[in-house]
């Protein structure tokens, strides 16, 4: 299986320019004819750092029918691959126009035939999301015991011909609102109990580097961020499972209103307690990272049993 992360630096609110940037990167990448899955960052074309509903309103897209979905369908058909892209969703009004509309921070996944496979709504919101988005509908379940609810807060299930997949968006891999225990590992626990061989996270992950530090060695990853991501999958590491689990972390890079993003998109494998890294993009690099999961990973970051 071949997967790709399109890491780039969208500008907040500059949708047409952001699309042009993404197209440009794809045109300058040798995309294999047998690519299975192309993943874009969270809120890829709208940009991420909005501070209110009023601010993001002009960029909201109706459920699986806005500009991001249209783009993803075209790209899926062109490369005959699955495409997952993050976008700011507003629900379409039902037959009763007085029914309230709801906003979500979502991803849509398209099949290689151009059909909509799944719309996922971010469950664990980051501070900025809370100003405009609601939690994904299943997100109440993490406050309940398993006995009380069978709804998981994240998606884990069949995703077309990709097979069984766990999907999340950025903060989903953190403790709920940074208040639940670190070791609750809500996201990784679901991935583990669902036995999905593939995990995919679309992200706009921030970093603590200064703008100057971010621009130094742009092709080097932010190692602290990658190490943190690996740490959030600890339950899968400790399970020491024989079957490999592949994790795709598709982040954005660049800056928005003084906020720096970590780039460093990463594809890794967890197997028998060992964590290996296939490839990592640089922290300030705009590129499409293509990884063949059947090849040997480049580095081992944690040895196994
Ligand atoms: N905890 C993440 C961060 O620090 C969350 C950001 C997000 O959800 N986009 O970047």
From TrEMBL:
Residues 1-295 form the CN hydrolase domain. GO terms for biological process: protein catabolic process. GO terms for molecular function: protein-N-terminal asparagine amidohydrolase activity; protein-N-terminal glutamine amidohydrolase activity. PROSITE patterns: CN_HYDROLASE (PS50263). Pfam families: CN_hydrolase. InterPro entries: C-N_Hydrolase, C-N_Hydrolase_sf, Nta1. This is CN hydrolase domain-containing protein. It comes from Neocucurbitaria cava.
């Amino acid at each position: 299986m071949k997967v790709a992360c399109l890491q780039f630096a969208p500008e907040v609110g500059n949708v047409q320019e952001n699309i042009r940037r993404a197209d440009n990167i794809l045109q300058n990448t040798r995309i294999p004819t047998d690519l299975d899955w192309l993943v874009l960052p969270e809120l890829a074309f709208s940009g991420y750092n909005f501070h209110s509903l009023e601010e993001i309103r002009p960029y909201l897209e109706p459920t699986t029918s806005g500009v991001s979905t249209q783009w993803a369908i075209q790209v899926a058909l062109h490369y005959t691959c699955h495409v997952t892209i993050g976008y700011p969703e507003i629900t379409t009004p039902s037959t009763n126009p007085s029914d309230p509309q709801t906003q979500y921070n979502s991803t849509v996944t398209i099949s290689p035939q151009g059909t909509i496979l799944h719309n996922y709504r971010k469950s664990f919101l980051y501070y900025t999301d809370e100003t405009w988005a609601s939690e994904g509908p299943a997100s109440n379940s993490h406050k309940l015991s398993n006995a009380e609810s069978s709804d998981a807060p994240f998606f884990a299930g069949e995703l077309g011909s990709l097979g069984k997949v766990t999907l999340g968006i950025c903060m989903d891999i953190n403790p709920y609102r940074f208040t639940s225990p670190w070791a609750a590992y809500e996201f990784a626990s679901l991935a583990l109990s669902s036995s999905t061989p593939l995990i995919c996270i679309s992200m706009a992950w921030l970093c603590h580097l200064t703008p100057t530090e971010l621009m130094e060695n742009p092709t080097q990853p932010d190692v602290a961020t990658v190490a943190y991501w690996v740490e959030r999958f600890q339950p899968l590491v400790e399970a020491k499972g024989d079957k490999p689990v592949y994790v795709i972390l598709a982040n954005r890079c660049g800056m928005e209103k003084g906020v720096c993003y970590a780039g460093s998109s990463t594809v890794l494998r967890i197997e028998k307690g060992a964590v290996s890294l296939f490839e990592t993009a640089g922290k300030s690099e705009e590129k499409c990272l293509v990884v063949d999961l059947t090849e040997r990973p480049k580095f081992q970051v944690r040895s196994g049993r």
